[in-house]
């Protein structure tokens, strides 16, 4: 479990830095993948886990708990199953995640050409 919240992280350099808040929310091995999976539709815990090879149930639960605490993802119980979806704040991250994905692709292509 993380020891510092994204809001606390915005002041980690002794000055206010919203970029650090954003990076803190997205940091975590599986958070970007979780957000990408939820961009299309809500998902049950088991569906998320099945689509994330190498992620343990415990790790997924921990990453989801942080995203819920940060109000990026909401959790609802439907027929004894946890269902997760992006909140309005989470949806506002979609263009940022998509831009980061495009940048990463371009960066990797640039490195391959060097």
Characteristic key phrases:
alpha+beta; 3 strands; globular
Write a concise synopsis of the structure shown.
The chain has 114 residues and is α+β, with helices and mostly antiparallel strands. It has six helices and three strands; from the N terminus they run αααβααββα.
Describe the structure.
It is a single chain. With 114 residues, this protein is an alpha+beta fold. The chain is built from six helices and three strands, in the order αααβααββα. 60% of the residues lie in helices and 12% in strands. The protein has a three-stranded antiparallel β-sheet with strand order 1-3-2. Helix 3 packs across helix 6.
Strand content: 5-15%
Number of helices: 6
Q: How many E strands?
A: 3
Biggest pleated sheet? 3 strands, antiparallel
Structural class: alpha+beta
Q: Name the strands of the widest sheet in spatial order.
A: 1-3-2
Return Rg in Å.
15 Å
Order of helices and strands: HHHEHHEEH
The termini sit apart by 39 Å
Describe the secondary-structure layout.
Layout: H1 6-9, H2 18-26, H3 31-40, E1 43-44, H4 45-50, H5 57-69, E2 73-78, E3 81-86, H6 88-113
Antiparallel strand pairs: 1-3, 2-3
Helix pairs in contact: 3-6
